[in-house]
Amino acid sequence: MTDASLHIARPEGATDEASLRDYWQLLKPRLMSLSIFTALVGLLVAPGPQHPILAATSILWIAIGAGASGALNMWFDADIDRVMKRTRKRPIPSGRVAPGDALALGLFLAGLSVVMLGLTANWVAAFWLAFTIFFYAVIYSMWLKRTTSWNTVVGGLAGAFPPMIGWAAATGSTPLEAWLLVAIIFMWTPPHFWALALFVKLDYHDARIPMLTVTHGRAETRKQALIYAVGLAIVSIYAATTALGGPLTLAVVMVLNGVFVKGAYDMWRRTDADSDNHAVEKGLFKWSLLYLFAHFSVFVIEAALPFGGW
Protein backbone atom coordinates (compact mmCIF):
# COMPACT_ATOMS: atom_id res chain seq x y z
CA MET A 1 0.00 0.00 0.00
CA THR A 2 1.40 3.41 -0.94
CA ASP A 3 1.54 6.43 1.31
CA ALA A 4 -1.10 8.11 -0.84
CA SER A 5 -3.54 5.26 -0.44
CA LEU A 6 -3.00 5.21 3.29
CA HIS A 7 -4.38 8.72 3.48
CA ILE A 8 -7.71 7.74 1.94
CA ALA A 9 -8.11 4.17 3.17
CA ARG A 10 -10.34 3.53 6.16
CA PRO A 11 -10.23 0.61 8.58
CA GLU A 12 -12.66 -2.27 8.22
CA GLY A 13 -15.79 -1.67 10.19
CA ALA A 14 -15.33 2.10 10.17
CA THR A 15 -18.47 4.17 10.49
CA ASP A 16 -19.43 7.61 9.30
CA GLU A 17 -20.70 8.52 12.75
CA ALA A 18 -18.49 11.15 14.35
CA SER A 19 -19.24 13.06 17.51
CA LEU A 20 -18.35 16.63 18.36
CA ARG A 21 -15.71 15.17 20.67
CA ASP A 22 -14.05 13.45 17.70
CA TYR A 23 -13.80 16.74 15.82
CA TRP A 24 -12.51 18.42 18.98
CA GLN A 25 -9.80 15.78 19.23
CA LEU A 26 -8.78 16.55 15.64
CA LEU A 27 -7.70 19.99 16.84
CA LYS A 28 -5.15 18.46 19.25
CA PRO A 29 -6.51 20.31 22.30
CA ARG A 30 -3.41 19.67 24.44
CA LEU A 31 -1.09 21.27 21.91
CA MET A 32 -3.68 23.96 21.27
CA SER A 33 -3.76 24.80 25.00
CA LEU A 34 0.02 25.24 24.97
CA SER A 35 -0.26 27.64 22.01
CA ILE A 36 -3.03 29.57 23.78
CA PHE A 37 -0.95 29.88 26.94
CA THR A 38 2.26 31.03 25.26
CA ALA A 39 0.40 33.38 22.90
CA LEU A 40 -1.40 34.92 25.89
CA VAL A 41 1.93 35.44 27.63
CA GLY A 42 3.31 37.17 24.54
CA LEU A 43 0.29 39.43 24.42
CA LEU A 44 0.37 40.25 28.15
CA VAL A 45 4.08 41.07 28.39
CA ALA A 46 4.08 43.21 25.24
CA PRO A 47 4.35 46.93 26.03
CA GLY A 48 1.39 49.27 25.87
CA PRO A 49 -2.29 49.07 26.83
CA GLN A 50 -4.53 46.46 25.21
CA HIS A 51 -8.29 46.45 24.89
CA PRO A 52 -9.51 43.33 26.75
CA ILE A 53 -12.10 42.36 24.13
CA LEU A 54 -9.67 42.74 21.23
CA ALA A 55 -7.05 40.83 23.20
CA ALA A 56 -9.48 37.99 23.96
CA THR A 57 -10.63 37.71 20.36
CA SER A 58 -7.03 37.73 19.15
CA ILE A 59 -6.25 34.78 21.42
CA LEU A 60 -9.39 33.03 20.14
CA TRP A 61 -8.23 33.26 16.52
CA ILE A 62 -4.72 32.13 17.44
CA ALA A 63 -6.27 29.13 19.22
CA ILE A 64 -8.38 28.29 16.19
CA GLY A 65 -5.31 28.58 13.98
CA ALA A 66 -3.47 26.15 16.26
CA GLY A 67 -6.42 23.78 16.02
CA ALA A 68 -6.36 24.04 12.24
CA SER A 69 -2.70 22.99 12.29
CA GLY A 70 -3.60 19.98 14.42
CA ALA A 71 -6.41 18.89 12.09
CA LEU A 72 -4.18 19.16 9.01
CA ASN A 73 -1.45 17.23 10.79
CA MET A 74 -3.86 14.46 11.78
CA TRP A 75 -5.16 14.26 8.22
CA PHE A 76 -1.71 13.79 6.74
CA ASP A 77 -0.39 11.54 9.52
CA ALA A 78 -3.33 9.13 9.53
CA ASP A 79 -1.20 6.33 8.06
CA ILE A 80 1.50 6.44 10.71
CA ASP A 81 -1.06 7.11 13.46
CA ARG A 82 -2.55 3.69 12.66
CA VAL A 83 0.81 2.07 13.42
CA MET A 84 1.71 3.80 16.68
CA LYS A 85 0.08 2.49 19.86
CA ARG A 86 -0.41 5.91 21.42
CA THR A 87 -2.13 7.36 18.32
CA ARG A 88 -4.08 4.53 16.71
CA LYS A 89 -7.28 5.48 18.57
CA ARG A 90 -7.33 8.99 17.13
CA PRO A 91 -10.46 9.93 15.14
CA ILE A 92 -9.11 9.24 11.64
CA PRO A 93 -7.16 5.97 12.11
CA SER A 94 -10.00 4.59 14.23
CA GLY A 95 -12.42 5.35 11.40
CA ARG A 96 -14.66 7.75 13.29
CA VAL A 97 -13.80 10.73 11.05
CA ALA A 98 -13.21 10.56 7.30
CA PRO A 99 -9.85 11.96 6.10
CA GLY A 100 -11.58 14.35 3.73
CA ASP A 101 -13.67 15.80 6.53
CA ALA A 102 -10.55 16.43 8.62
CA LEU A 103 -8.82 18.12 5.68
CA ALA A 104 -11.83 20.34 4.99
CA LEU A 105 -12.10 21.30 8.66
CA GLY A 106 -8.41 22.15 8.86
CA LEU A 107 -8.42 24.30 5.73
CA PHE A 108 -11.59 26.11 6.76
CA LEU A 109 -10.32 26.90 10.25
CA ALA A 110 -6.93 27.97 8.88
CA GLY A 111 -8.48 30.48 6.50
CA LEU A 112 -10.97 31.72 9.08
CA SER A 113 -8.38 32.24 11.81
CA VAL A 114 -5.89 34.12 9.63
CA VAL A 115 -8.46 36.47 8.09
CA MET A 116 -10.19 37.19 11.38
CA LEU A 117 -6.93 37.79 13.25
CA GLY A 118 -5.96 40.26 10.54
CA LEU A 119 -9.28 42.07 10.89
CA THR A 120 -9.32 41.89 14.69
CA ALA A 121 -5.70 42.73 15.48
CA ASN A 122 -3.40 43.46 12.54
CA TRP A 123 -1.95 41.82 9.45
CA VAL A 124 1.51 41.36 10.95
CA ALA A 125 0.05 38.93 13.46
CA ALA A 126 -2.09 37.35 10.75
CA PHE A 127 0.97 36.79 8.55
CA TRP A 128 2.84 34.99 11.32
CA LEU A 129 -0.21 32.87 12.13
CA ALA A 130 -0.51 31.86 8.47
CA PHE A 131 3.19 31.09 8.33
CA THR A 132 2.95 28.98 11.49
CA ILE A 133 0.06 26.92 10.13
CA PHE A 134 1.92 26.40 6.85
CA PHE A 135 5.14 25.50 8.65
CA TYR A 136 3.48 22.90 10.87
CA ALA A 137 1.21 21.37 8.25
CA VAL A 138 3.57 21.39 5.26
CA ILE A 139 7.20 21.90 6.28
CA TYR A 140 7.02 19.75 9.41
CA SER A 141 4.22 17.23 8.84
CA MET A 142 4.66 16.59 5.12
CA TRP A 143 8.43 16.91 4.87
CA LEU A 144 10.65 17.04 7.96
CA LYS A 145 8.83 14.51 10.13
CA ARG A 146 9.26 11.69 7.64
CA THR A 147 12.64 12.51 6.12
CA THR A 148 15.14 13.70 8.71
CA SER A 149 16.12 13.39 12.35
CA TRP A 150 16.13 17.20 12.38
CA ASN A 151 12.33 17.00 12.44
CA THR A 152 12.11 17.78 16.15
CA VAL A 153 14.64 20.62 16.05
CA VAL A 154 13.53 22.53 12.94
CA GLY A 155 9.90 21.47 13.25
CA GLY A 156 9.86 22.85 16.77
CA LEU A 157 9.67 26.33 15.29
CA ALA A 158 5.99 25.77 14.59
CA GLY A 159 5.26 25.46 18.29
CA ALA A 160 7.60 28.33 19.14
CA PHE A 161 5.85 31.08 17.18
CA PRO A 162 2.60 31.60 19.22
CA PRO A 163 4.10 34.01 21.82
CA MET A 164 5.44 36.17 19.01
CA ILE A 165 2.03 36.10 17.33
CA GLY A 166 0.47 37.23 20.61
CA TRP A 167 3.04 40.02 20.89
CA ALA A 168 2.40 41.07 17.29
CA ALA A 169 -1.36 41.05 17.91
CA ALA A 170 -0.84 43.53 20.76
CA THR A 171 1.72 45.82 19.12
CA GLY A 172 1.89 45.12 15.40
CA SER A 173 5.64 44.50 15.72
CA THR A 174 8.06 41.66 16.50
CA PRO A 175 11.08 43.09 18.40
CA LEU A 176 13.97 41.18 19.95
CA GLU A 177 11.98 40.37 23.10
CA ALA A 178 9.31 38.61 21.05
CA TRP A 179 11.95 36.57 19.25
CA LEU A 180 13.52 35.62 22.58
CA LEU A 181 10.21 34.05 23.61
CA VAL A 182 10.36 32.08 20.36
CA ALA A 183 13.96 31.08 21.06
CA ILE A 184 13.12 29.75 24.52
CA ILE A 185 10.46 27.39 23.17
CA PHE A 186 12.66 26.46 20.20
CA MET A 187 15.51 25.37 22.51
CA TRP A 188 13.09 23.72 24.94
CA THR A 189 11.40 21.52 22.33
CA PRO A 190 14.22 19.05 21.50
CA PRO A 191 15.00 17.87 25.05
CA HIS A 192 11.27 17.81 25.81
CA PHE A 193 10.41 15.53 22.88
CA TRP A 194 13.62 13.50 22.97
CA ALA A 195 12.90 12.57 26.57
CA LEU A 196 9.52 11.32 25.34
CA ALA A 197 11.07 9.53 22.36
CA LEU A 198 13.45 7.66 24.64
CA PHE A 199 10.60 5.82 26.31
CA VAL A 200 8.36 5.38 23.23
CA LYS A 201 11.16 4.47 20.80
CA LEU A 202 9.45 1.36 19.43
CA ASP A 203 6.44 3.40 18.33
CA TYR A 204 8.59 5.69 16.20
CA HIS A 205 10.60 2.74 14.87
CA ASP A 206 7.48 0.83 13.84
CA ALA A 207 6.08 3.92 12.11
CA ARG A 208 9.42 4.50 10.29
CA ILE A 209 9.69 8.03 11.66
CA PRO A 210 13.36 9.11 11.66
CA MET A 211 13.47 10.37 15.22
CA LEU A 212 16.97 10.81 16.62
CA THR A 213 16.49 7.70 18.78
CA VAL A 214 15.92 5.66 15.61
CA THR A 215 18.56 7.18 13.33
CA HIS A 216 21.40 7.84 15.78
CA GLY A 217 20.59 5.75 18.82
CA ARG A 218 19.74 6.43 22.42
CA ALA A 219 23.20 7.55 23.55
CA GLU A 220 23.38 10.29 20.92
CA THR A 221 19.84 11.37 21.76
CA ARG A 222 20.77 11.77 25.43
CA LYS A 223 23.86 13.78 24.49
CA GLN A 224 21.93 16.09 22.17
CA ALA A 225 19.24 16.59 24.83
CA LEU A 226 21.91 17.75 27.27
CA ILE A 227 23.43 20.12 24.69
CA TYR A 228 20.06 21.73 23.99
CA ALA A 229 19.25 21.93 27.71
CA VAL A 230 22.46 23.91 28.26
CA GLY A 231 21.65 26.09 25.24
CA LEU A 232 18.16 26.66 26.63
CA ALA A 233 19.64 27.80 29.94
CA ILE A 234 21.84 30.35 28.13
CA VAL A 235 18.95 31.77 26.11
CA SER A 236 16.62 31.75 29.11
CA ILE A 237 19.01 33.57 31.44
CA TYR A 238 19.81 36.12 28.75
CA ALA A 239 16.08 36.77 28.21
CA ALA A 240 15.69 37.36 31.95
CA THR A 241 18.25 40.19 31.74
CA THR A 242 16.34 42.04 29.01
CA ALA A 243 13.15 44.10 29.21
CA LEU A 244 11.25 40.81 29.42
CA GLY A 245 12.61 40.04 32.86
CA GLY A 246 13.78 41.47 36.13
CA PRO A 247 15.19 40.31 39.46
CA LEU A 248 12.33 37.89 40.14
CA THR A 249 12.50 36.37 36.66
CA LEU A 250 16.26 35.96 36.85
CA ALA A 251 16.05 34.19 40.21
CA VAL A 252 13.28 31.85 39.05
CA VAL A 253 14.89 30.91 35.74
CA MET A 254 18.20 30.18 37.45
CA VAL A 255 16.43 27.54 39.56
CA LEU A 256 14.34 26.20 36.66
CA ASN A 257 17.31 25.81 34.38
CA GLY A 258 19.47 24.32 37.11
CA VAL A 259 16.94 21.52 37.63
CA PHE A 260 16.44 21.08 33.87
CA VAL A 261 20.15 20.80 33.10
CA LYS A 262 20.66 18.45 36.06
CA GLY A 263 17.85 16.21 34.73
CA ALA A 264 19.34 16.22 31.24
CA TYR A 265 22.76 15.42 32.70
CA ASP A 266 21.35 12.49 34.67
CA MET A 267 19.66 11.23 31.51
CA TRP A 268 22.91 11.59 29.54
CA ARG A 269 24.77 9.45 32.09
CA ARG A 270 22.37 6.55 31.60
CA THR A 271 23.26 3.66 29.32
CA ASP A 272 21.22 1.03 27.51
CA ALA A 273 22.35 -1.39 30.20
CA ASP A 274 20.43 0.60 32.80
CA SER A 275 16.97 -0.32 33.96
CA ASP A 276 14.25 -0.10 31.34
CA ASN A 277 11.78 1.67 33.62
CA HIS A 278 12.76 5.01 32.02
CA ALA A 279 12.12 6.87 35.27
CA VAL A 280 14.76 9.50 34.48
CA GLU A 281 13.42 10.14 30.98
CA LYS A 282 9.83 10.34 32.22
CA GLY A 283 10.90 12.64 35.03
CA LEU A 284 12.64 15.02 32.63
CA PHE A 285 9.64 14.99 30.30
CA LYS A 286 7.27 15.91 33.13
CA TRP A 287 9.64 18.56 34.48
CA SER A 288 9.92 20.12 31.02
CA LEU A 289 6.19 20.80 31.04
CA LEU A 290 6.36 22.43 34.47
CA TYR A 291 9.47 24.33 33.36
CA LEU A 292 7.75 26.01 30.42
CA PHE A 293 4.64 26.89 32.41
CA ALA A 294 6.65 28.39 35.28
CA HIS A 295 9.09 30.18 32.99
CA PHE A 296 6.40 31.96 30.98
CA SER A 297 4.28 32.63 34.05
CA VAL A 298 7.09 34.50 35.76
CA PHE A 299 7.38 36.81 32.75
CA VAL A 300 3.73 37.79 33.27
CA ILE A 301 4.14 38.17 37.03
CA GLU A 302 7.21 40.37 36.60
CA ALA A 303 5.40 42.58 34.10
CA ALA A 304 2.44 42.96 36.47
CA LEU A 305 4.46 43.91 39.53
CA PRO A 306 4.44 47.67 40.34
CA PHE A 307 8.22 47.63 40.64
CA GLY A 308 8.90 44.69 38.38
CA GLY A 309 11.49 44.69 35.63
CA TRP A 310 14.94 46.17 35.51
UniProtKB/TrEMBL annotation:
Keywords: Cell membrane, Heme biosynthesis, Membrane, Transferase, Transmembrane, Transmembrane helix. Its EC number is 2.5.1.141. It is a multi-pass membrane protein. Pathway: Porphyrin-containing compound metabolism; heme O biosynthesis; heme O from protoheme: step 1/1. It is found in: Cell membrane. InterPro entries: Protohaem_IX_farnesylTrfase (IPR006369), UbiA_prenyltransferase (IPR000537), UbiA_prenylTrfase_CS (IPR030470), UbiA_sf (IPR044878). The chain crosses the membrane at residues 31-47, 53-76, 97-119, 125-143, 150-172, 178-204, 225-244, 250-268, 289-308. It catalyses: heme b + (2E,6E)-farnesyl diphosphate + H2O = Fe(II)-heme o + diphosphate. It is an enzyme of class 2 (transferase). Its main location: membrane. CDD domains: PT_UbiA_Cox10. It holds the Pfam family UbiA. Belongs to the UbiA prenyltransferase family. Protoheme IX farnesyltransferase subfamily. Carbon 2 of the heme B porphyrin ring is defined according to the Fischer nomenclature. Converts heme B (protoheme IX) to heme O by substitution of the vinyl group on carbon 2 of heme B porphyrin ring with a hydroxyethyl farnesyl side group. Interacts with CtaA. This is Protoheme IX farnesyltransferase. It comes from Jannaschia pagri. The lineage of its organism: Bacteria, Pseudomonadati, Pseudomonadota, Alphaproteobacteria, Rhodobacterales.
